[in-house]
Every structure is written in structure tokens, then in C-alpha cells.
Amino acid sequence: MALALMTAALQAAGRQGRFAYLTADEARRELAGIDQFETTAAMWVWTDKYVYRPGETLTARWTIRPHNDFFPYTIVAYRQNNQTGEKTFLPQATAEATDIFGNTVAQGFQITRLPSIEKEVLVQVPVPNELGMHTIVVQVRDFTGTRVVKSAYFKFGVVDGEVSVSGNIDSSTTWTNTKLYRIRGPVFVRNNAVLTIEPGTFVIGEPGSQPPSVLVITRSGRIIANGTRSRPIIMTSSQPFGQRKPGDWGGLILLGRATNNWPTGEGPIEGLVDSPDTRYGGTDDTHDCGTLRYVRVEFAGAELQPGSEVNGITWGSCGTRTISEYLQVTYGFDDAFEWFGGTNNAKYLVATYTRDDYFDGQIGWRGKVQHAVALVNADNGNRGIEMDNNETNHALRPLSAPQFYNVTFVGVGDRFTQSVDEGTGVAAIFLRRGSGGRYNNIVAYNWVTAGIDVRDTRTLENLDSRDLTMNGVILWDNGKSAGRANTLDDQVTPGTRPFVRGERGEARNIVVADPMLRRPFEYSDPDFRPRLGSPVFRANWVQPPDDGFFDQWAVWSGAFGDVNWTEEWTNFIQEEDLR
């Protein structure tokens, strides 16, 4: 009955003018001579919660903002069982493909213009007895119903029970996607134990526990969290949608035995009380802390001791055998990603709506990062990259000298408020305390006070020694809070000007130009890919080395060429857009 009512409601909405219907002949006439491959519209879909039991009712809502797209389309929605790939088309829950009005392929999909919809019910359906991760998918297709022009995705889980996890994990264990896992207090994986988390598993950090919940992989433990694009592993808050906030729980910490620049060779990780289980460091720069692949960490950053919060994902002296790729941290109260010493690398990182820094490193981190994006919204954050060598002694070695390639920073312009960390010097690239590194093929756009800020004596000396270099940075609209113009001098801080002008050190191809990104400020459905004619594709950007880690084919500046690698596994929806 509910399905029939939903179909009737969508059909009635069409008759009432919510959807502007067209015939196939009308669509062909409108599109004569036009290749319809893109849309300017924004769209997102979500359910009323993440995890269900079989038989519960799932309500899916959606928002569409056409942004002056008046082309004719067809619209298809379905639920996909990500374990089997089987699709159930909505709203009538059929195996046969239909559009959202219930028309089959044989009948012909209804052709319509995209309506303006805000937080309306798309469908209500019973949750099937099919355990594991599922996806609600909404596709905007061309008017023939063949080519997919745009898709929106939302992941949810179906489980048959919950598991409460607390204390220590001293023997190897597997968390499956048929259960919901609730972390209560600090949980330490140790004693040579391996924690394996299946693709599509939901892990809930319980807020309010004392101390707050946090998952720590100690030096004697390892994690295998090997998600997939269709079945990411999601670690998140237990609070209802619309009521979640940064710091609802702790986060994820990996500790290893690689080298750092603490004088003793080891130290306690930030945010936790010093103990054998919270220390990191050693002599093995290849140490394997485990695998994180297609993992999302949401609403983390709780304070476990006064004045010291946990980051979304933290690596402490992890080595080169550690795998970290396709990771998102969203709504963190402290930093999104932070590295303390070590040599581990990371690819395909997404940092969104974090209250402090987006990529932070210190204590002698020498890893590599490629394909990374940071997006700040009105909640505000701090720095895009904040890099220190060692806060107590800027000259310690090994030097913090990471290599960054293909990064995009999209800031919040002049909407500046005090962050949870330092409230001044809110630059996209902020280098201090004797740090070094290579920063190449980066877009820094719309950051609060500056695009680049290199400060203090020891860091500036690293320019002269070439321990700190840049090549291929596009700057645009940074420093609005200070009234800065789009000139090279104004896009950086005064002390950084000799560097970017080529008068000191090695800085090449530092360019002030509009990167012409497609839709960077549609926060719940951004598109960071460059438009036609963007300077991102100029021929003069440096090519990454072919060293076994970097993708040498990424010859553009910024995180994106023509392919949106964030599609399906990430979630950009702002919390206020769910209320």
C-alpha cells in the first residue's frame, strides 16, 4: 500500500507542475545539435538513519537544485544490495527497471525537466531481510533513458544484531557487515592481534562515555579495514541525523615503529594519556600498521584529556608498508588527518567541515600524499596544510619533509571565526617550526587569510637549503578577510613574498588565476573538477616522479582532472541539510 501511495504521489506531483513533462519529440527538438553529457544541477539523497533491522521502514528524502539546467531528462531510483549487485527499482520495489513514476522501459520513461526540491520524501519502503550494505541510488539520465548524466548515492546497512566493544582486543578478530559495532571508551588493538573489518561495516563511536570512545591500533597490533567503493567502512556518531556534531566520539589512531624526531625515539600520541599502549616510534621505517582503504570517519575529535582532542585519523610513526587510500574525515572537532613522524604514504584523501586543520604533520613525518581535497564550510576550520618539524626544537632530525602532489583546498572566504586551535594565520598552506617538504601541483582557493604562509627563521632557512620547495601552485581569492587582491604579493603573507617571487629558495610556477572549478561551494554536492579552459590543465605543471607510489599520469594542478574519484563512497551532505 505504501509503495502504491508513493507512486501515486510522484505521479500527482507531475500533474501539479512539480515536474515539467515533455514528449520525446519536444526533447529532440530542444536538444538538436547538443551533446547532453553534463548537468549543472546539484542533487543528494539520504535515508532517516544509517543502520536498520529487517522489516523496519526506510524513508529516503532528496534535494534537487537545478541551477538553471532546463534540459529534459529521465529520473531513475533504485536500492542496490552491494553484496550481490541486485537492484530493486523504486518506488514500486520491482526487479524490472522503472523510472521514479513507475514507467518501464517498454512503456517509455517519463521525460521531465529537473524540479527544485528541498528535503522531500522520495520513497518509503520496508527494509529487506538482506544483511549487509545497501545503497539508495538516484540517477538523472538523458531524455532517452540510456546515458547516466548524474548520480546521487546514500549508503545504509541492514544488520541482525549489535556488538558492544570495550577494553582491549588481544587476539585477532573480524567485524562483519551483518552486525553493528558500538565502541564504548578507548579500545586498544594489541598483543599482535589483527582487527579485520569487512567492507560495508558500520562502527559507532558512543558519545558521553568517560573517557570517550576511540579505536587505537597500538604498535603491537594491526588493522585490516579494506572497504570498497560500493561498500566503504563507516565509523560515525550514534546521534540521530541532524543532531550529530564534531567531537561526538574520539576517532581512529594507528601507532607504529617507524622513526621520528623525538630525542628518545618515541613519544605518547596526542590526545591520549601516556601509557605503553599510546606510545609510538621505533627504528623500522617499513613498519606495517595495517590497511585503511575506503574508510569514512565522521564526527570524531572528542577530548580525552583537557585541551587535547583526538583527530579524525591519526598515524603515529607508521611505516611505508602501511596502506592508506580512499579515506574521508568529515566534521572532525580537531584535525582531519595528522601524521606524527614515520614514513607512511596516503592517496585519495577527502577532508570536509573539520574545525581545525585538514592535513597536519610533525615530529619528522616524511610520507607522500597525492590526490587530496579539503573543503571548509560555514562551520569554519583552520589551515589546509599545517606542517611542523618539532614544536620544542625546530632543528631536530629526521626533518618533517612530506611530499604533496595534486591537492585542492577550497576555503570559506571571509567568514572567519576562531577555530579550535590557533586563530591566526589561517592559510591554505601553513609551514612553520623548521618543517620542509615538497608541495607541488596544488590549488589554494578562497582561504581566509592567505594562500601560502611560510614563517619563522628555521623554516625560512630550509628554503635556502632546498629542503623546502614548491612547484605548480594556483592561488585565487585567498585573504578575503584581510581585503587581499588577486596578485602574487597579496595571495601570500609578507614574509613569503621573496620565496614565491623567485628571490629566495626554489618556488616555480606559482600562479594567480581563477581555477574555474565547476561547483566547489555547493557543499552537500560539490564538484571540484575544472571547467573547460581552466588553468588546472596548463602544460607547465610538474609531473610527479615514477617512484612506485605517485601516479605520474596526474599532470594537472589540484586533486582532479576530468574524473571525480570521490563518487559514491564519500558523503558531503551537510548536517543542516538533513534537518
Show the helix and strand layout.
Blueprint: H1 2-15, E1 21-22, H2 24-30, E2 42-47, E3 51-52, E4 57-65, E5 72-81, E6 87-90, E7 111-113, E8 117-126, E9 132-142, E10 148-158, E11 162-169, E12 173-175, E13 180-189, E14 194-197, E15 202-205, E16 214-217, E17 222-226, E18 233-237, E19 252-255, E20 267-268, E21 279-280, E22 290-298, E23 303-305, E24 308-309, E25 313-316, E26 323-330, E27 337-340, E28 346-352, E29 359-362, E30 368-375, E31 385-387, E32 403-410, E33 427-431, E34 437-445, E35 450-454, H3 457-464, E36 468-476, H4 497-500, E37 506-512, E38 517-519, E39 527-530
Parallel strand pairs: 3-10, 11-13, 12-14, 13-15, 13-16, 14-17, 15-18, 16-19, 17-22, 18-22, 19-25, 22-26, 25-27, 26-28, 27-29, 28-30, 29-31, 30-32, 31-33, 32-34, 33-35, 34-36, 36-37
Antiparallel strand pairs: 1-7, 2-4, 4-8, 5-6, 5-7, 5-9, 9-10, 20-21, 23-24, 38-39
